[in-house]
Specification:
single chain; binds iron/sulfur cluster; nine-stranded mixed sheet; Alpha-Beta Plaits; 2 domains; about 375 residues; alpha/beta; Rossmann fold
């Protein structure tokens, strides 16, 4: 039985967060037993892009500091790291660390911030789709990895938590390559599970104090939930967190893929909870991303018609040229490279768009919106 520990924590006050993190980790004695004096531990933080902690896009620095201090007290050597959106280089890492408050954590605790931008190819025979993958070298070199995620909605994957956070071990622009190779949501989810199985985090923790709903993971609305949750199983943690967020697990492709492989049972009643009981948590269901394309014709019309209707109704990215500052981040992050800059503004070839919404995710000023088909709006508003 997979165990999930949930603690109330209403604010990012360091003392309170430290208490909550310690309670979560102490509830998983098998995690502590694996660690050893001097072990190097990558605290894989969600550092998607240059955002301040208050934006609720990145894992909050108080949570990371609490994890770091806990590990240091056990004699471990934590290193904070991620490969955020954009190129995996020192310049980009510096900007992201600074904005997300990671420099301050390193200064206060003396822990390492990863600046090694080398990459290594690894092999996982048991993987379903991604037997060979490029990962950031630090993820290979450390003894253990902790997935320190943020609870948010996600344009392509509906939800991002412990499993999706590990996509950040894939270096910079290789992410776009994998997006392109795994050309649909189901394949993309399978490859995320492959990555998660390879990384095999020793423990996963979700910062669910301030979360994001709507058009996450970067352009949604902040939502206060006031929880920290942890588990030795990233899949169990995601099932529990999706229950907290009121998101049906059938809409979360990583949970569907993990369940098919027998890695988790999505019925949260099969999980063992400690700390607060899930039924005691009263949170208004999260607003889902506009990109969610619920297949309302599945099984009701012939297959060829189903695929035509589904494609016609697919939401699409819309670029607001008045807001756009022409930074080209969307162009650089577009997996099929279908965005051209015309007079300094992005113009996508939507016939070739794979609806990954990386452009929406990585636009620093929310100039990319997600537009549903007008008929979908009429029928399902
Ligand atoms: S235009 Fe946007 S949604 Fe379409 S493929 Fe490129 S990045 Fe993905
Ligand atoms: S849409 Fe956003 S990411 Fe793309 S060029 Fe404009 S400001 Fe940059």
């Amino acid at each position: 039985m997979n165990k999930v520990h949930i603690v109330k924590c209403q604010e990012y006050d360091l003392d309170k967060v430290q208490q909550a993190v310690a309670e979560c980790f102490d509830a998983m004695p098998e995690f502590k037993e694996k660690l050893f004096e001097g072990a190097k531990v990558l605290v894989k933080t969600n550092l998607l892009m240059r955002k301040n902690p208050e934006d609720a896009v990145t894992t909050h620095p108080s949570v990371i500091e609490a994890i770091v201090r806990y590990l240091q007290a056990l004699g471990c050597k934590p290193v904070i790291g991620d490969s955020p959106g954009g190129p995996y280089n020192e310049w980009n890492l510096k900007g992201v660390y600074k904005a997300a408050g990671m420099n301050a954590v390193a200064e206060k605790t003396g822990c390492e911030l990863n600046y090694d931008t080398s990459v290594i190819e690894v092999h996982n025979e048991k993987a379903k789709l991604l037997k060979n993958m490029q990962i950031i070298k630090v993820a290979h070199d450390v003894d253990f990895i902790i997935s320190a995620a943020k609870l948010k909605t996600h344009g392509m994957m509906t939800y991002t938590g412990a499993v999706k956070n590990l996509f950040g071990v894939i270096p910079g622009i290789t992410k776009a390559e994998y997006h392109f190779k795994m050309n649909n949501t189901a394949n993309f989810a399978e490859h995320l599970v492959d990555i998660c199985e390879y990384v095999n985090p020793v423990i996963s923790i979700i910062d669910a104090i301030d979360c994001m709903e709507g058009d996450g993971p970067s352009a949604g609305m902040k939502k206060h939930v006031g929880l920290l949750m942890a588990s030795s199983s990233p899949y169990a943690l995601d099932v529990a967190a999706s229950k907290v967020a009121g998101i049906n697990t059938e809409l979360i492709p990583t949970i569907v893929a993990a369940e098919k492989r027998g890695l988790i049972n999505s019925n949260y009643k099969n999980l063992e909870f400690s700390g607060i009981d899930l039924d005691e948590i009263k949170v208004e269901p999260f607003i889902l991303p506009s990109s969610i394309n619920i297949n309302f014709v599945g099984g009701r019309v012939p297959k060829f018609l189903e695929s035509f209707i589904t494609n016609t109704f697919r939401p699409q990215p819309i670029f607001d040229h008045d807001k756009c500052v022409g930074c080209e981040d969307c162009k650089r992050s577009c997996p099929p490279d279908i965005i051209k800059m015309v007079n300094g503004k992005p113009v996508p070839d939507l016939d070739k768009c794979i609806r990954c919404f990386c452009c929406h995710e990585l636009c620093p000023i929310k100039a990319v919106d997600i537009k549903k088909h007008w008929l979908h709006e009429r029928l399902f508003r």
